[in-house]
Design a protein that fits this description.
Layout lengths: L7 E3 L3 E2 L3 E8 L3 E8 L5 E9 L2 E8 L6 E10 L4 E11 L1
Parallel strand pairs: 2-8
Antiparallel strand pairs: 1-3, 3-6, 4-5, 4-7, 7-8
C-alpha cells in the first residue's frame, strides 16, 4: 500500500515561514492522514487527504512551529488495511 522507502519530507530542515512537503508513493488509492508531533510527543497538526496510485505530495506551512525536531506519522488506509510510516522533520526559525 505504502512504499516506506519512498516516504520523506523536503526541504529538511525547513526554515520558518516555508512550506514542508511530505512525498510518498501509494500502490493503491487510499485515505491519508499526517499527524505531526513535537519533541515531547504533543500533537502539533493533523492533515487529512486522499492519495492516489503513484507519487503524492502534501504540503503545509510550518510558520507557527518553533525550532526543533518533529515526528511526522503518515498513515494510509483502505477498507482492507492500514499502513504507517514515520519521518523526522527539523524546523529552524
Amino acid at each position: 500500500l505504502l512504499a516506506e522507502d519512498e516516504t520523506y519530507c523536503y526541504p529538511n530542515p525547513v526554515g520558518g515561514g516555508q512550506r514542508v512537503h511530505m512525498r510518498f508513493s501509494l500502490m493503491e488509492t487510499a485515505s491519508v492522514e499526517i499527524v505531526v508531533y513535537d519533541a515531547i510527543g504533543a500533537e502539533v497538526e493533523r492533515i487529512n487527504a486522499n492519495g492516489h496510485v503513484g507519487e503524492n505530495d502534501i504540503a503545509w506551512s510550518v510558520k507557527d512551529y518553533a525550532s526543533g525536531i518533529y515526528l511526522c506519522k503518515l498513515q494510509a488506509r483502505t477498507l482492507a488495511r492500514s499502513v504507517s510510516a514515520l519521518v523526522k522533520m527539523a524546523v529552524r526559525q
